[in-house]
Structures are given as C-alpha cells and as structure tokens.
Design a protein that fits this description.
- Residues 29-119 form the Heterokaryon incompatibility domain.
- InterPro entries: Cytolysin/lectin, Fruit_body_lectin_fun, HET.
- The protein has 13 helices and 25 strands.
- The protein folds into three domains: 2-183, no CATH class; 233-366, no CATH class; 378-512, Sandwich (Mutm (Fpg) Protein, Chain: A, domain 2), CATH 2.60.270.
- It has 515 residues and is of the alpha+beta class.
- The longest helix is centred in the N-terminal third of the chain and has 17 residues, at 92-108.
Length: 515
C-alpha cells in the first residue's frame, strides 16, 4: 500500500484529505525531498492529518506541506507524498516496510521537488545541508525528474541543469545525475557517495542505502550503526561477485586488532570513488568459517600479506592487507593495518599488472571477528585481546633469541623495530628463549595474562631437558598442578601485586627488553 495526500487547496490545512492506494493502483503523484524541521518548528505527521488519531501536542507548521501541495497542484498533480505524514512513524512495522519501499516510491514519482530551506540563490545550492543528509542520496538519484526549490519556494533549476554544482558537491558523476548512462558502477563507488552524510539515528546510515543497493531487510533500531551497516553488505554477497565491496579503508581502533571482511560505516568507502568492477570476478560466499573468497595472494613480503581483489583503480588491481590466523593449512586471514608510512590504517593498495599476473589464485577465508565457539572466557570477557609490544635490544652484547612459543591462539611477530606477542584470551602466555652472545647460558622470558592482568617471569634454562613448548604449557593457568607448582606461585601470589591492569585486554602494553 501507499498513502498519499490530496493536493487540492484547503482552507484548514488540518483537513487535508489522505488516502491509501494499493501498490499497483497508485495514481500519478509528486514527491517531496527535504530536511526535517527542528522540533521547535515541528513537522506535520500522520497523526495531525488522520481524523481517527489524537493530534500531537507541541509546535507544528503546515507551511511546508501547503507550499509543496500548491506547487504540485499547479503542475497538474492531484496527489502527493511526504515522508513526515504519509508514514505512520509510530507504527514500527509500517515504518520498516516504508523504508524498504522508499527508493521505489521516489523512482515511480512523476516528479520530485527538493526543498532547500537554507538556500536563497542558485550559487548556494552546493552549500545546502540537504546534501549532508543520509536519506537525500537516494532521493537525489532515484527520481526520474527532480526540481530544486529555494527557501521561498522559487524554482532554482532541475538536477540535470545543476549537475555541475551537484557533481562538485557530491563527487557523483554527471552521467549518473543525468540518468543517461549504461556504465556499470561498483558497489564501492555507490557507497562512497554516502561518505560524510548524517542521519538522526545511527542505523539509518545503513538503511538509507538499501534502495540504492537493491537490498530488502528487516530494520532494528537497537542494533547500532556498525551492525546495521554490515547486514546490507552481507546481503550483497548473496547476489553479487563484485569484489569492490571489500576495498574499503579505515583507521585501526586498537593496535594489533584484526578486522573482518566488512566495513563498519559508509565513511570507510571514502577512498573508493574510482574503484571499478571487473567484467568477471571470482565468486565468494559467507560461511560459518568466514568469507570464503578466491583471490590472488601476494605473500612475498614477510611483514605483510596482500589479498588482491578482482577490481581496479586507475588500471591497477586493488589489494587489501591481511594477516594469517592459525595454521597455514586453515587458510584463515584477518584484515590488519599495513606496515610503513600508513601504519595503523586498514587500507588498500594498488598492484601493478605485471605483479598481478605473477600471482596465483587461492581460496582463502577472511575470518569473522566474533567467537567461533562458546566458551567461558568469551562469555565472561568477550572480545578481549592482549598485545605485548617489545623494542628489540640493539646494543652490543645483547642476548640472542633462540626460540619462541605461545600457548592457545597466541602468536609472535618479528619486525626490524618491534616484536609483538598477541594473546587472544586471558590465562595464556608466550615464551622467549634467549642465550648470552658470549656463552651457552640460556634463560626463558615469560609474558602472560592472568585474570585480565599482565605478568612476566624469568627463569634459567636448566638441564632438565624440557622444551620451550613444555615450559610455556606449564605456565598455563589451566595446566595440571599449576596452582601448587613452583612456576604457578609467582604468577598467582607474588606477581599479582606488581602487575598493570589491562582494562579487559583492550590496550597494549609496552615492554622494553634490556636483558
């Protein structure tokens, strides 16, 4: 169904006729695009026009709806649609269905009038806050015909006539604004047009893109903006092989924290305006092991693995930074911050054609960031991750690193300027076997987390024949006899008094080795 209001002039705006039409019997209508007025002014709602509803208290202005209906009536349209009053926003089910139909309603309208309440002259069109609103992106692109009106309801030109101003403001190509192109635009390009736009509710950053992305889904205004934006991306993976959806870039929230395949916000596609889809792309699919995708892997640099996508930017293939998770046989990766000048950015880079042709396709998994199984640690402290950053000793006579081990899902990473130990849960540890450069004396440095608090211990490597793996496993809080062992006592009793609280594992700890 679609609810429309009559454009016929009325003496009392509160008596304007409102009717419901079946979707396939809708008469020709004009549609309004605008920014909602502040609460101090008030918008006309469904309850204001519905004779069976009690009129809401508070200020309300009928001027905008009256002027719009007058313009539509003068142009020969008997019916009009306005989002403030043609949807019962107090009915969440109706609101959800309407949002999923919104793009179609704007597309089927005979004309769209875009009211720019903050514009008084043509030269200021591009400065209007109308271009900053999330919902107005689809309201700009969906209608077949769109005419702009200034604050005084004076016609200031059509979308086609003002395309140069709009292009400069939105970075949307002129061909799209003219609706006169057969060019294929990538998913990343479309989402990039939503960069920097604002909505009253965080979830609407995602919901306002549903029509443009041809996605229909249930709305949930309790899920938050990040989760709301992931769902349409997941929906796209079910019907498209466009790799550009993974070409986003973002700043890392925490050192060492991995990201999964999907962006958290349209703003993370800000650099994707010129990412073009390939004519053919390898398939991908969501599984319970993560995103399964076929792409070329560039792992020639030991400090960074790049997954090359089937999409291009200015003739070069786009690649995303990855980090291996677990054993190589699992083929599981997470998105990670690149190393070098742009360290800290989960970004993409461009790969020359010559290098691209040398790489082979592999089927890999980009792992989800959530838990794979349900266990006590994740239930008590979901998402905890601990990263130790160490500056390697650079002075002459410094000890030599002989071996490294980590328990559980822990992993070491060596770089020329920093060493990292990542522990994905409390109760685990890492071990470093060091040897004096001028002798055979060896000792073990232990780094671990107990009850979300960091601890460290040093012990000589005696002649017991224990391997480094056996030593590190004996430091596990869950290891047999740990509570009463000589190794367990310092961790549980002595060191707890001298540890730094990590705040649930959400911060890194800097350690300088001067051994």
């Amino acid at each position: 169904m679609m609810r429309l209001v009559s454009t016929e002039p009325v003496k009392d705006p509160k008596t304007r006729l409102m009717m419901v039409f079946p979707q396939d019997e809708t008469p020709p209508y004009a549609i309004l695009s605008h920014r909602w007025s502040p609460k101090s002014v008030g918008e006309v709602t469904f309850q204001h026009l519905d004779p069976n509803s009690e009129s809401p208290k508070g200020p309300v202005s009928y001027k905008k709806i009256t002027e719009f209906c007058n313009k539509a009536f003068d142009a020969g349209f008997e019916w009009a649609w306005i989002d403030t009053c043609c949807i019962n926003h107090e009915d969440s089910q109706e609101e959800g269905k309407s949002i999923n139909s919104m793009y179609s309603w704007y597309r089927k309208a005979e004309v769209c009038y875009a009211y720019l309440a903050d514009v008084t002259q043509v030269g200021d069109i591009g400065k209007s806050n109308w271009f900053k609103r999330g919902w107005t992106l689809q309201e700009l692109l969906a209608p077949r015909n769109l005419i702009f009106f200034d604050r005084n309801w004076i016609d200031i030109g059509s979308r086609a006539l003002r395309r140069d101003i709009i292009k400069e403001t939105t970075k949307i190509p002129s061909e799209v604004l003219l609706i006169n192109t057969n060019t294929d635009y990538s998913v990343a390009q479309i989402i990039s047009w939503a960069t920097g736009r604002e909505t009253s509710r965080p979830e609407d950053r995602a919901y306002s893109l549903l029509g443009l992305l041809r996605i229909t889904m249930a709305l949930d205004y309790t899920e938050g903006g990040d989760k709301a934006f992931v769902r349409p991306q997941q929906g796209i993976t079910k019907r498209s092989t466009d790799h550009s959806i993974f070409s986003w870039a973002a700043k890392l929230e925490e050192p060492g924290k991995l990201r999964d395949a999907f962006a958290k916000s349209p703003d993370e596609f800000a650099s994707c305006a010129d990412v073009e889809p390939n004519t053919t792309s390898r398939e991908f699919a969501l599984t319970n092991n993560g995103l399964r995708i076929q792409m070329r892997i560039n792992d020639k640099d030991p400090n960074m693995i790049w997954g090359v996508l089937d999409c291009t930017r200015k003739g070069k293939h786009v690649a995303i930074p990855l980090e291996q998770i677990g054993d190589a046989a699992e083929r599981r990766y997470g998105r990670v911050g690149r190393r070098g000048p742009d360290d800290g950015e989960v970004g993409a880079t461009d790969v020359e054609a010559a290098i691209f042709d040398e790489l082979e396709y592999r089927e890999v998994y980009i792992a989800p960031t959530g838990p794979r199984n349900f266990n006590l640690t994740e239930w008590m402290d979901a998402g905890a991750q601990y990263t130790f950053f160490m500056e390697p000793p650079m002075t002459p006579g410094s000890p030599l690193v002989i071996d490294l081990k980590a328990t559980g899902k822990g992993r070491w990473k060596f770089g020329p300027r920093a060493w990292e130990l990542k522990l994905e849960e409390t109760g685990h540890c890492g071990a470093m076997l060091l040897q004096h450069p001028l002798g055979e004396d060896q000792f073990v440095v232990m780094l671990g987390v107990h009850n979300n608090r960091v601890w460290t211990n040093i012990e000589p490597k005696n002649g017991s024949g224990e391997s480094l793996k056996e030593i590190s496993n004996n430091y596990l809080v869950t290891a047999k006899d740990f509570l009463t062992s000589e190794r367990g006592k310092p961790v549980l009793n002595g060191l707890d008094e001298r540890v730094q609280d990590l705040g649930g594992g959400k911060h890194g700890t800097n350690l300088v080795l001067g051994l």
